[in-house]
Amino acid sequence: MPTVGLVLAVIFFLAGLAGTILPVLPGAPLILAGMAVYGLFAGFENLTICFFLGQTAAVGLTFLVDYLANAWGVSRYGGSRTAIWGGALGLLAGLFFGPAGIILGPFLGAFAGEFFASRRYRHAVRVGIGSLLGFLGGTLIKLGIETAMITWFFLTVF
């Protein structure tokens, strides 16, 4: 029975990693869900409450990385606090518009925030690009966190 759970967990892991690269699916939460599915099939053998608390903290860290990477990209390219907030709001709003919204939302939010704050179009475009670069860097960091989550799972199970 744990073999079926393991196969399902791996499917969840792959979907989660794909969701991080192509933001259609919630990456880290799917990975955590795969661990829970395996636990249900295996009777939570070796998967302690501390394990799940640590994994849940890692999921929370991926959400924090989304915000911080956007803020870093915006500020690195000279963006104001308004642009940082615009990028964060754009990220949230983009969730409702699928993959394109998740990628373009932070750009448009940072652009709008900076244009509102400075009234300089070129500078606002530059800050929006910084937001995109922050998004890409954040995606790489999230992939690292998720890889560590999956590695921890396999080290715990085997």
Descriptive report:
The chain is mainly α. The protein has one domain (2-157). Helix content is 86%, strand content 0%. It contains six helices and no strands. Helix 3 (49-76) packs across helix 4. The longest helix has 37 residues, at 121-157. It is elongated, with a radius of gyration of 18 Å. It starts with a helix and ends with a helix.
Indicate the topology.
Blueprint: H1 2-21, H2 27-42, H3 49-76, H4 81-94, H5 98-118, H6 121-157
Helix pairs in contact: 1-2, 1-6, 2-6, 3-4, 3-6, 4-5, 5-6
Write a concise synopsis of the structure shown.
The chain has 158 residues and is an all-alpha fold. It is built from 6 helices and no strands.
Low-confidence stretches: none
Number of strands: 0
Structural class: mainly alpha
Tell me the β content: under 5%
Describe the structure using short key phrases.
6 helices, 158 residues, mainly alpha
